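Dear colleague,

Following up on Tuesday's group meeting, I ran the structure prediction for the three-component complex that the binding team flagged. I've pasted the input sequences exactly as they went in, so you can double-check that nothing got truncated or mislabelled along the way. The C-alpha cells for the whole assembly follow below. Feel free to forward this to whoever is handling the docking comparison.

Inputs:
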Amino acid sequence: METQNKPTPYAREFEVQKRRRDAPFFEKHAHAGKTIVKVLDYVILCLLTLTTFYPILLVILNSFKNRYTISKKPFDWLNSSNFVGWSNYAKGINQSKFWNAFANSVYITVVSVILILLLSAMAAWYLTRVKTWWTKTLYYLFVFSMIIPFQMVMLPLTGVFGWLMPSDLPSDTGYLYKIFITVLVYIGYGAGLSTFIFSGFIQGIPKEVEEAAMIDGCNTPQVFFRIDLPLLKPVTVTVAVLNVMWIWNDFLLPYLLLGTRAGETTLPVAIQIANQGGYGDINMGAFMAMIVLSILPVIIFYIIGQKYIIKGVTAGAVKG
Amino acid sequence: MEQSIILRSLKGEKREMAKYYKKWFPLFVLPLLICFAFFVILPFGMGFFFSFTKYKTIADCTWTGWTNYALAFSGDSTFWHAFGMTVAFVIVTMLIINVCAYLLALLLTKGLKGTSFFRAIFFMPNLIGGIVLGYIWNLLLNGILLQFDQNLTSKVSYGFWGLVLLTCWQQIGYMMVIYIAAINGVPNEVLESAKIDGASRFKTTTHVLLPMTLPAITICSFMTLTNGFKLYDQNLALNGRTSPDNMLLALDIYSTMFNAGDGNMGPGQAKAVVFFFMVALISYAQVSLSKKGETEA
Amino acid sequence: MQKRSFACVALAAFAAAALVGCQKTATSGSSVTSGSTATSTSTAATLPTIRYLNFKPEIADAYAGIAEAYKKETGNTVIVDTAASGTYEATLKAKMPTKEAPALFQINGPVGYANWKEYCADLTDSDFYKALTDKTLAVTDAGKAYGVPYTVEGYGIIYNNAILTKYFALANKAVSDTSMATINTFAKLKALADDVQAKAATLGIDGAFAGTSLKDGEQWRWQTHLFNMPIYGEYGKVSSVQDNFTFKYAAQYKNVFDMYVNDSGDKKATLATLDVNASMAEFAMGQCAFVQNGNWAASQILKVEGETVKSDDIKFMPIYSGLDHAGAAAYDETKQGLCVGTENFLSVNKKLTADEQKAAIAFANWLYTGNGKSYVTKSVTDGGLSFIAPFKDMASPSDPLSKEVMNWMSKDGVTSVPWDFATIPSENVKNTLGAGLLAYVNGSMTDALWKSGVVDATTAKWTSEAALLKTSSVAA
C-alpha cells in the first residue's frame, strides 16, 4: 500500500472489506433497509442533542438581558426592552475580577496536574518495584484515601492550612502564597487515584526491560525516566484528564482555603460569590455573563481535545 | 540469545535490583508522601479525634466522648432527613442514569453515521462544573415552574426532582461513553454466533450483551452511587443553603459545621465521620461484589 | 449595618487563623510593643503610629485620603487596614495577638463587647464620646462607655411621594387622609396600602409595595429588620440576648408581612427567586409606591438604570405594626419613629501602650469632633465616608434618605425604635424564620403554616440557640 502512489481499485476494495470485517458487530450488520428505524433513531438523537444544549443556550440568551427581567421572564426572546448588549459581560468581568480568577484556576490546575503526574508516576513505580512491608502499606493508604469524603477532612484541613500561613502575609499579594500551598494540597488529594492507576499500569511493564537498561549502565533515575515514563504515555493522558476535570471544577476546597475576596480565588468560587452578594448586590445579568464566560474555556478545551478526553475517561474507568 | 542468558543469570540477583532502587526513596516517594501525609492523612486523623470533642478552634477543644454523635442522631437533627433524601436520590439517579446511558450506548453502536459526533455532544455536560451547573438549572427550572405559579421551593419534591434531572443531564453522557466502549469491546464472534443461532436483536441484547458488559455496568453503578452520595456543589447551587428541606448529606454536614449556633463544630464533624463510614462500607461492598462477579465470569 | 452571614468563610478562616492566634496568645503578654516612630516633619508631640481595622470595604479608599490629611495636620500616622466583607471578626481575631494589632477597631454591639471585653478601653472621658448627641446609643457597662457608635443607620418604609401625592388627589380614594403626615398607625397604613393597590392601574403603577424578596440569602429585610418590631414589642430596648422569645406580637408581624406580600404587583411564585436589588429597582423605576429598606438603599435606588423616581420624592416613614407595648411599658404607636441604630461601635485597644491608646483616641477625636468632620459626611465620590454620624455639630450626608433619617431623629414627639435585632441569638434563628416565611408564602399563606413554620419553629430555635450561647466559652 505505502509503496504505491494511488491505491488501485483492488487495494481500495481490500481496505473497505478489511474495515468492514474488523468493525464492531452492530456496524457490520446495520440494516440499510430499515429506514424508518433509522429516521427514528436520528430524530431521537437530534432531540437529545437539543435537550443537551438547551440549558446552556438559555443562559447565553439571558446573559444579554436586562438584569431585572431575567428571573421574572427567563424564556423571553431578546427585544428592545430587555436587550443590553455586552454590558453584562463588562460588569461581570469587572466586579468579579474574572481574569484574575481565571488565571488562578489555570495556574492551580496546570501546575497541580503536572506535579501530580510526575510525582504519582514516580511514587507508583517505586511502590510497585520495591516490595517491602511499608511500601505495601503506603500503597494501600493511597488507595484508601480515595474513599475519604471531603467533608470529613475539610475542617482540620483549614486548620493545617492555617499553620502554614505566616502572620505577616501582605494583604494584596499574599494570596499568591496561598495559591502555591493550595497546589500542594491538591497534590496530596490527587495522589490516591493517580498512584493507583499508574501502579496498575506499571505492573504490566516487564521488569526485564528495566534490568536490561541497568545492565547497559543506567542508574535508577535514568531507568525510570528513560524506560518507564515513555511507556506510561497512554495512561498519563488518562490520569491527566481525570485530574484536570476534577481540579478545574472544584469548589469547596478553594472556597475554604482561598477565601472569597474577588480576584484571589478560583473560577467556581468567583461564581458562587457573585450569587451571594451582600445587602442587595446580586447582579443577575452580570452573573449570567460570568456563567457563560466560565463555560467557554471548558467547551473550547473540549472541542480541541475531545478525542483524548473521551479516550482517557474510558481507559480510566476500565482501570478503576 | 545473548540477552536472555544475561537476564537469566540476573534472576538470582533480582532482590538486589530492588535493593538498588531502594535508596532512591527520597527522590521518588518522599515529595508525594509529604503532601499526602500532611494534607490528607493528618486532617483525617484530626477529623476523627475532633468528632469526640467540642471544639471551636483547633487549639481550643474539650473531650466530650459520644455527645456529638448523640446530638447528630437525635430527633432534632436534620441528619436523618438528609440521609433519607440522599438514599432516595442515589437509588433514583443510579437507575435512571444507567438505564438511559445503556440505551443511548446501544443506539450509538448501531453504526449510524455521525456516531462519534453525537457521542462527543452527549459527553459534554459532564465537563461543566457543579456550581455553574446548579445555577444554570436553577434558572431553567424556576423559569418553567413560574409558568405554573410555582418555584423550586414550593414543594420539596420539586427541589428533589430538579436535582435528579440535573444529575442525570450531567452524568448520562459520561456513563454512556463507558458503555459504548464496553459494548464495542464484546468480541464479534460471540455476537455472530448468536445471530447465527437466530436470536432476535432484543434477545441478543439481553442475553449476550448485558452479561458480557457486566464489569462496565458494575463500574458505572458504583460511580453513580458514590457521585450521588458525595454530591455537594450542585445541591448548594440548585437548592440553596438556608432551607434544610432539600439538603443532601454532604450539604447538611457542611451546614451543621458552619452554622453551629455556638461555633461548636463537633456535631458536624461527628456527622462527617459517620458519612465516611457509609461511603467506606459502600465501596467495600462494591469491591467485594465485583470481585465475586469477576471470579464467576 | 449588620454583618452578612458568611459564617462559613469567617469560621473557616477563623479556624485557620485562630490556630495562629491561639498559639501566639499563649506566648505573648498583654502588651505588644510597637515602634513609636516619630514622623518626620511635625513639631507637635508625636504619638506612635497606630492601626485602625476598618469594617466597611466600600469606603476603604476614602480612609487613605483621611489618614493623609490627618498626618499633614498633626504629623501622626494612622494605618488603615480593611477587612474583606464578612471577615471582620476573623481578621480581628487573627490580628489582635500580632504586632499588627489595631489600636482602633470596632465591635458590633453588646454581643461583640462580650467577646472583646478584655480589649475595650474605657472611653467615658474621651472627647468623641462626650460629643455624642445620644449617649444611650453607646455600648456601656456599669456606667462606663466602651464602644462609641460612629455611624447610625435607619430603616423604615421608603415611599415615593410623587405617587402618593397623585393618590391623595384622587377623587374616589377610600381613605380620608389627605397627606402622609396623618398616616401614623398600622390601621391607617394598611387602609392606605390596600387602596393604593386597588387603584394601581389608575396611578400607573404595578402595585403598592415592591416585591418581598425571599431568595436564598436575600431575606434579611424580614428576618432581621422587620423582625425587630415584635422583639421590641416584647422586650422594649434590650442589649443582651434573651433566653426565650414567645413571639407575643406574631400577629402584628404577620399583618405587616401579609400587607407587603398581598399589596404588591409581584406574583407570589416569583418571590422565592427575587433578590433585594430587583426589589429596589421596582421602586426606582416607579413601578410601586412603597418598599421597606434603610438609608443605605438611597444610592442603590439612584443608581438604577432607568430610574424615574426623583431624589426629592424619596421619603421615609416608620414601620407601623400596631404595637401597643414596648416590653412592660405601654406604647403609643403614633409616636413611633424610624428604626435607628448601628452595629458599628468604635473601641480602643486597651492591651496596647498608653501612648498608642492616646493616639487612637486623638485620631477619633480629630475625625468626629475636630477638623476631620467634613470627611465624615462628604459623599463617597468626594472622598468622604457618607456617615450619619451622631455627634454634635455634624452635618448630614447629602443623600435623600440620610437626610430623612436625621429629620426623623430630631422630630418632636417622636422616638426612634432601637435595633433590638442585634440580640437575636444566632444566624440559625434568622434562617429558621426566613425558611418559615418562604414556606408560608409558597403554601398559600395559611394560618396553620404561619403558626407551625414561623411562630413555633422560630421560638423553639431561639430558645435552643440561646441556650447554646450560654454554654459556649466566650472567645478571647
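Chain C touches chain B through 39 residues (CB under 8 Å).

Cheers,
M.
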